Amino acid sequence: MVFLFVLAGLVYMEATKKHPVNWFPSYSKEDKIPLGTYVLHDLLQETYGKNFVEKNAPPFEVFQEHNLKGTYLFINNRLTFDQVELDSLLAWVKIGNTAFISANYLGENLLDTLHLKTETAVNIQKIATQPLVKLVNKKFATQKPFHLKKDFAINYFSEIDTLSQTVLGVSASFIDSVKMQEPRVNFIKAPIGKGEIFLHLQPEIFSNFFILSEENAVHTAQVFSYLNSTNKIYWDNYYKTGKRVYISPLRVLLNNKNFKWAYYFALLGVLLFVIFEGKRKQRSIPIVQPLANKTYQYTRTIAGMYLDKKEYKLVAEKQIALFLEYIRTRLRVPTETLNDRFYKAVAERSGNTQQETLNLFTFIEHLQNKRFTTQEELLKLYQEIKEFKKKTDGKP
Question: Which of 179, 162, 277, 211 is nearest to 27 (CA)?
Fold first, then answer.
């Protein structure tokens, strides 16, 4: 009995304890946590009205739409496009569109394409790094920089192409006063064909935390003032760390503190009932059918779009990308470096011989190095990957 009282007391203390602030870098429009973008999304939707369009699909698919013109807005803590998707993005920008990308970390392929390098600032005077941000244009200059009063990483462009790219904003670390010491470039504009791409390395300025702090919303508005207000704004929902996925009703229940502890007390009551009153009963175990693998159907749908246009090279690249994703998720083998060790690991885990594995990846490398892909080569690639997966999926 004493044990039950102690247990109930611990449960009560845990239930009434103040919930800590969630600093997860979500950047989702649905999150009202400090690093969500609920406020920004609401403001942009109210400002642009019908010209504000949300995109939930991967950008690679979005760029295949006809009459897609305007500004594509990407905000997240990390943005790493694969090469095929990056090529599609840059091709879309070249015809006169705008891409606005804000992230702490950008993919190496994007940086290499634009001849950029980034680094993280280190504050030797203080352990924490609280960023100061400011635009360099005199039209938007203020008496003092805007201060993010939280320990965030300060990333900056250590190398840019000064002949074609324009510096728009800088950042520095807060020391003792709101005065910039050693400002570093964190916001640039780069022309791409008839269009332009904006790159920004401090996405926290678009978060609920920053916009609702003091007069910081002024800086966010100044940054967006570089965008053409008459264009459509395409809001990306796909590349979000806090992107919503399917969740069970139980997960919804546990997100509410009161419901959560009511659920725990109910479980405790059931447990006590089982211990003192319950009787063992046998019942039939229902057969749960495994989830169907829709990868094949998805691949056929995407591939069909481009087979009609005879864009065999593009289909082959997406098929190779999906196969590498299969290697990473199904076989748990990293694909950054393709060497003998990689081939051996893939062969052992897939049930294929090392020679079969080497032959398949040699053929893949051959297709990647070619400028064009024939229909026969595409069919051969499909068949070889299919046979490779058949042995893998057939393993116990």
Answer: 211
Report the distance separating Cα 378 and Cα 390, nearest Å. Answer: 18
Sorted by sequence, the CB contacts under 8 Å of residue 22 that are 6+ apart come out as: 33, 34
The pLDDT score that the predictor gives to residue 303 is 59
Q: How far apart are CA 28 and CA 207, in angstroms?
A: 9
Pairing, β 166-173 against β 131-135? antiparallel
- The owner of tokens 């062969």 is 347
Task: Say how far apart CA 160 and CA 189 lie, in whole Å.
Answer: 10
Residue 299 is predicted with a pLDDT of: 58
Rounded CA gap, 229 and 209, in Å? 25
Q: Tell me what the mean pLDDT of segment 191-200 comes to.
A: 97
CA atoms of 243 and 25, how far apart (whole Å): 11
d(CA 178, CA 130): 10
pLDDT of 5 strictly over 80: no
pTM > 0.90: yes or no: no
